[in-house]
Amino acid sequence: MLLLNPRAVFGYEANSAVRHGLLGCGNRGTGVATSFAQNTSARVVALADIFADKLAAGQDHFNKVNASLGQPAIDSKLLFRGPHAFEALANSKDVDLIQISTPPYFHVQHLETAVASGKHVYCEKPVGVDIAQTKHALEIAKKVKPNQSVDVGFQCRMAPPIAALAEKINGGALGKIATVAGNYNAPASTEKKREGEGPDEYRLRNWLWDRVLSGDILVEQNIHIIDLCNWMLGAHPLKATATGGRNVLTHWGDIWDNYQVDYTYPNDVHFTFASTQFGNDGAFDAGLKLFGSNGSATCPYAGAIAITGSSAWSWQDSESTAAGSGKFAANGSFLDNLKYADRDKERTFIASIVSGPVHNQIAEGVQTALSCILGRMAGYTKREVTWEEMLSAEEDWPLGFSLEQFA
Ligand SMILES: NC(=O)c1ccc[n+]([C@@H]2O[C@H](COP(=O)([O-])OP(=O)(O)OC[C@H]3O[C@@H](n4cnc5c(N)ncnc54)[C@H](O)[C@@H]3O)[C@@H](O)[C@H]2O)c1
Questions:
Q1: Which residue, 20, 169, 185, 223, could crosslink 42 as a Cys pair with Cβ 3.0–4.6 Å?
Q2: Which residues have CB under 8 Å from 298's CB, separation 6+?
Q3: Cα 319 from Cα 300, distance rounded (Å)
C-alpha cells in the first residue's frame, strides 16, 4: 500500500474534482453542497429529490454556483426525481459522493443504498429516528468498503473554537468532571404550504413537526449539543429521566416544544439538558457547560468559549466579547463559533476521500442518535429508562403512507 500513490488507492488526484450528488435539495442540503463546492474539490454534478419543485430550485441554484466557479451546468441526465430518485443517484456512474440531506426518517434507508453503491457518503444527522433504524444502521456500518468514506453531519465538532476546547478538556484542563449542563432554545419552524397538496404531501413537507419523520426536537435538533456532551465526556449516557410536552405549539403535528432531561453518564456524572422550540422572536441560544474539580468550561454556539480555573483559557477570537451580541469576535471575523464548522467538516471529509485515511462515522452517529432516543423515550414513558432497556424496546415506527403517490 505504501508504494502506491493516492490516486491508485483512492481513485483521485489530490486536486481533481470529486463528483458530488445531492439527495434532498432543501435548505440544509443546498447550503452544505454549496459550501462543499466553494471550499473543497467537490463539484455538484447530480441532484435528486422526491418533488419536482425542489429539484428545479436545486438545478437553478447549482447552475449558478457552478457558473460562478467556472464549472459546467448540471447535465439533465443527472437530475433524478421521485421516490426512487435515491436509487437512480446511487446507480449513476458519474457520481463519486452522495450527500444525504433528506428528512431524518429516510436517512438509514438512503444510507443503505448509498453505502451499497460503493460511493462515498455524507449523511446528515440523525442516523435513525427509532431503535429499529439505529440497529439497521449498525449493520450497514459493517458493509462500508475499505476504500469508502462515510461521514455523519456533526459539523459542530469541527468548529475551530469548539475543537480547541475539546482538546483542552481531553487533556484534563477541568480535572475530574462532576456535572454538565446544556440547553437548546430555538424558535419554531415555519409552515410550508402548497396549493392543491394532499395530507401526505403536507406532512412530508412539514416533516419537522412530525415525530416519525423528524424523531422529535430532541433527536432532530438538540442532537448537536448531546453529541458534543458525548464527545467531550468520551461516553454515552447509561440512563435518563425526562419531562416535557407540547405547552405552546398549537399547529399541526405531534412534536414536543420543550424537553428537560437528566442523563446519567459513567462515574455518576449528570448532564442536565433543557430545550425549547417555539415562538417567532428569533431568539436562539444553544450551548454546553462542563464543571470540573479544577475549573469549568463554557461552550455556547454564539459567545465566548472559555475555561476558568487553574488551566484558564479562552479562544482568542472570542476575547472581549459580549455574548448575545451576535457579533462578538474581537477581530470581527467570527460572527459565531460555528462560522467555519461546515467548511472544516467538508474539507476534512474530502481529504479522507482524496488521500485517506477513510472515515466510517456510522456507529458513532448511531451512538449519539440513541442518546437522544433515550431521553425521548424517558420523556414519552414518564419514567427512568436505561440504555439496555432502550435497546430492547420494540420501537419501529411506520411511516403510515406510501411514497409511490409522488412517483
Ligand atoms: N447539521 C445541521 O446543522 C443541520 C441543520 C439543518 C438540517 N439538518 C438536517 O438536514 C436534513 C434536511 O433538512 P432541511 O432543513 O434541509 O429540510 P428540507 O425540508 O428543507 O429539505 C429536505 C428535502 O428532501 C426532500 N425529500 C423528502 N423526502 C424525500 C425522499 N424520500 N427522497 C428524496 N427527497 C426527499 C424534500 O423534497 C426536500 O427538498 C434533515 O435530516 C435535518 O435534520 C442538519
A1: 20
A2: 287, 289, 304, 305, 306, 307, 308
A3: 14
Query: Which ligand 1 atom is nearest residue 403's CA?
Result: 31
Ligand 1 and 26: CB distance under 6 A: yes
Please, which residues bridge with residue 297 across strands? 290, 307
Q: What is the pLDDT along the chain (407 residues), one digit of tens a residue?
A: 334 444 434 555 545 799 999 999 999 999 999 999 999 999 999 999 999 999 999 999 999 999 999 999 999 999 999 999 999 999 999 999 999 999 999 999 999 999 999 999 999 999 999 999 999 999 999 999 999 999 999 999 999 999 999 999 999 999 999 999 999 999 999 999 999 999 999 999 999 999 999 999 999 999 999 999 999 999 999 999 999 999 999 999 999 999 999 999 999 999 999 999 999 887 888 999 999 999 999 999 888 899 999 999 998 765 444 444 444 333 333 458 888 899 999 999 999 999 999 999 999 999 999 999 999 999 999 999 999 999 999 999 999 999 999 99
C-alpha cell at 175: 480535572
CA–centroid distance, 220 to ligand 1, in Å, is: 11
Nearest atom, ligand 1, residue 54 CA: 39
Residue 26 DSSP class: S
Ligand 1 pocket test: pick from 49, 61, 206, 337 the residue with the most ligand atoms within 8 Å of its Cβ: 49
Residue nearest to atom 32 of ligand 1 (CA): 50
Torsion of CA 125, 129, 132, 136, to 10 degrees: -20
Q: How far apart, in whole angstroms, are the C-alpha atoms of residue 77 and residue 92?
A: 10
Pocket mutation for ligand 1, best pick of 53, 109, 124, 406 (most atoms within 8 Å of C-beta): 124
